[in-house]
């Protein structure tokens, strides 16, 4: 998604955990943020709403200022690697969000359930997060 903001402003909002409840899909409240966030080795933990992911922990494994970040992500059902990248483009910043995951509790039906339901739900959630993030960034730019 392309947002109408500088990479600096985009990154500043992305890493501002006090604003996450406004745009991270499913997040109910942030529980803990390590002081060195968003540096490598730091983590954030948060809780979703009742129908969501439960307790989520995101630990930074790579961070490049004004470029992006990679996180190891775990929750009640998955473990994976989430990435965000910020690329300057004409008129703004392209924000790319990705998630590679593995379902923790596996069965013979896991690949089918993943293909039919889980993957689509994750794609929808990531798109929702990006859309809400862009709207929040626009809202902050207006103020």
Word description of this protein:
It is a single chain. The chain has a seven-stranded antiparallel β-sheet with strand order 1-7-6-5-4-3-2. It is built from two helices and seven strands; from the N terminus they run E-H-E-E-E-E-E-E-H. It is globular and about 50 Å long. Helices cover 29% and strands 39% of the residues. The chain has one domain (2-142): START domain (Alpha-D-Glucose-1,6-Bisphosphate, Chain A, domain 4), CATH 3.30.530.20.
Note the topology.
Blueprint: E1 2-3, H1 7-14, E2 27-33, E3 43-48, E4 55-64, E5 68-74, E6 78-89, E7 92-103, H2 110-142
Antiparallel strand pairs: 1-7, 2-3, 3-4, 4-5, 5-6, 6-7
């Amino acid at each position: 998604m392309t947002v109408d903001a500088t990479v600096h402003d985009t990154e500043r909002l992305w890493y501002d955990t006090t604003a996450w409840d406004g745009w991270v899909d499913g997040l109910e409240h942030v529980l803990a943020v390590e002081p060195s966030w968003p540096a490598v080795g730091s983590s954030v933990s948060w809780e979703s709403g009742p129908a969501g992911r439960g307790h989520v922990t995101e630990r930074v494994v790579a961070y490049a200022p004004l470029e992006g970040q990679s996180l190891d992500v775990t929750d009640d059902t998955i473990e994976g690697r989430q990435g965000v990248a910020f690329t300057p483009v004409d008129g703004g910043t392209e924000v790319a969000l990705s998630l590679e995951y593995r379902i923790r509790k596996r069965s013979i039906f896991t690949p089918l359930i993943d293909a039919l339901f889980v993957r689509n739900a994750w794609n929808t959630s990531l798109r929702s997060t990006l859309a809400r993030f862009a709207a929040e960034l626009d809202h902050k730019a207006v103020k």
